[in-house]
Specification:
Helices cover 26% and strands 30% of the residues. The chain is an alpha+beta fold and 250 residues long. The longest helix has 14 residues.
């Protein structure tokens, strides 16, 4: 792999190792690197980037923890990532589960919580609930190729989904389940995306460093009549993913 000309910014408040990590991550993820391709040696990188070997070593360790590279004793680090995984949002596609299944991606889903709760004011307003209504809170962790990738919590009106909290949703599609059991199928959805600094509990779940950026998603799905069916908050690992949105002139 050829490394572009770059140098650390001595006036930046960011540590040198962090600057090097971010630079190398961009080099690895920009699209032309291939799995198994060798990076320059630690000494070569240190000389090229104008930093110490210990700085390079720390940056490479963090990239290894992100599953972007692989290191073996006495050998150069190699690129571990595949090409960026594409998550496509079609005008007719509402299910992330269905999208991954269609692409043949190796993934699993772990249910972290499935319970009935008294909703907060935010949830009441998002779901247009009555004051006395309760919701099913469903938190899940999605693991792709053995790597935690997405953590999200769904809030669903209990009156629409009685007993949902008692169902086994491990490695199952929520939308397929509610269609089969309740005859409910989302018709449309609103999504918002922003990049945030990950909080400690989210970073721990996603196995990334505290303070690393995450893609925060909010999602509202509706019935054909406009009734709110689900509100969820999601935190997605930011590296090695490309989000593609499709739309058409209706």
């Amino acid at each position: 792999m050829k490394i572009a000309s770059w140098s650390v910014n001595p006036n930046s408040p960011l540590p040198y190792y962090y600057q090097v990590e971010r630079f190398l991550e961009q080099e690895i993820c920009r699209g032309d690197s291939k799995r198994g391709e060798e990076l320059p040696s630690e000494g070569e990188l240190a000389k090229h980037l104008g930093v110490s070997v210990s700085v390079v070593r720390q940056a490479l360790k963090r990239l290894e923890e992100k599953h972007l590279i692989e290191r073996k004793k006495g050998k150069k680090a190699v690129v571990k990532r595949e090409q960026k995984e594409r998550i496509e949002f079609l005008h007719h596609q509402l299910s992330h589960y269905a999208e991954l299944k269609k692409k043949g991606v190796n993934f699993s889903t772990k249910v972290m919580e499935n319970s009935v709760i008294q909703p907060s004011r935010e949830i009441i307003e998002k779901l247009s609930l009555g004051e006395a209504e309760k919701v099913v809170k469903l938190s899940r962790l999605r693991i792709i190729d053995k790597t935690p990738t997405l953590f999200w919590t769904s809030y669903l009106p209990e009156r629409l989904y009685p007993g949902l909290n008692k169902l086994n949703l491990e490695n199952k599609s929520l939308y397929a389940t509610i269609l089969d059991k309740y005859g409910i199928k989302p018709y449309s959805a609103e999504r918002s995306f922003e990049v945030l600094v990950g909080e400690t509990d989210i970073c721990n779940l996603l196995d990334i460093h505290v303070g690393d950026p995450v893609i925060y998603i909010e999602w509202l799905s509706y019935s054909k009549k406009g009734e709110t069916l689900e509100f969820y908050k999601a935190w997605h690992v930011s590296y090695n993913w490309k989000f593609i949105f499709h739309s058409k002139n209706l």
